[in-house]
Amino acid sequence: MSIKDTGSDHFKHMQEALEMATRHAEFLAIDEALKDQDSNNDVISECDLYVTVEPCVMCASALRQLRIRRVFFGCANDRFGGCGSVLWINQGPGPDPEYKCYPGFYREEAIMLLRKFYVQENEKAPVPHTKKVRELKYNIETMSYKHYVQSLEEFIQVYGKENKEIYINS
Ligand SMILES: [Zn+2]
Q1: Which GO terms describe its biological process (predicted)?
Q2: I want to staple 66 with a disulfide (CB 3.0 to 4.6 A). Which of 12, 44, 72, 74 is the partner?
């Protein structure tokens, strides 16, 4: 599908929206990794991805198709997460190999980063905000590592033996 630039604002905005939809951090990282590879996607299978938020379902699928090795993320994506929070795109039946996904790296920092971003006023919002002040919350709810990591052995391999209580108590 291609959209020709007709010069109208409508098409310009549509084009921008389409670009934004695929301009997730994962896609930027993939573009960067493939930049000097002469469109050889094999390099991705030797890559681990480190990302602030769990990949969304779209990115999780792209990563699987490109055969990413592993993904490490900060906080879960409760609304769109494709690595266990909403759907399991990284594992389960499919034509492409599964990949492992590990949550919780700098999780508090990731959560606070997102909260700080979302309490800002959106200046581009079409309808002015009601003067409701958005409050920055500081409480961090616990996360179940058992939901994402299948066994204590696997958890220890990735997070270290000294952290095993985190798994056991989650
Ligand atoms: Zn995404």
Answers
A1: tRNA wobble adenosine to inosine editing
A2: 44
The Å distance, Cα 25 to ligand 1 centre, comes to 7
- Give the Cα separation of 76 and 133 in Å (integer): 25
Q: Are 41 and 4 in contact (CB under 8 A)?
A: no
Q: What is the pTM assigned to this prediction?
A: 0.81
Q: How many Å lie between the centroid of ligand 1 and the Cα of residue 131?
A: 31
Please report, to the nearest 10 degrees, the dihedral formed by the alpha carbons of residues 163, 166, 167, 170 taken in order.
Answer: 180
Name residue, tokens 């000097």: 36
* Residue closest to 87 by CA, chosen among 107, 58, 50, 114: 58
Residue with tokens 């969304």: 56
Which residue numbers are catalytic?
Answer: 26
pLDDT per position as a tens digit, 14-68: 777 777 777 899 999 998 888 877 767 788 999 999 999 999 999 999 999 999 9
Say how many Å lie between the CA of residue 123 and the centre of ligand 1: 23
- Backbone dihedral angles phi then psi of residue 85, each to the nearest 5 degrees: -75, -40
Domains in the chain, start-ordered, CATH in brackets?
8-109 (3.40.140.10)
Q: Within a 10 A sphere around the Cβ of 65, how many other Cβ atoms?
A: 14
Ligand 1 centroid distance, CA of 26 (Å): 6
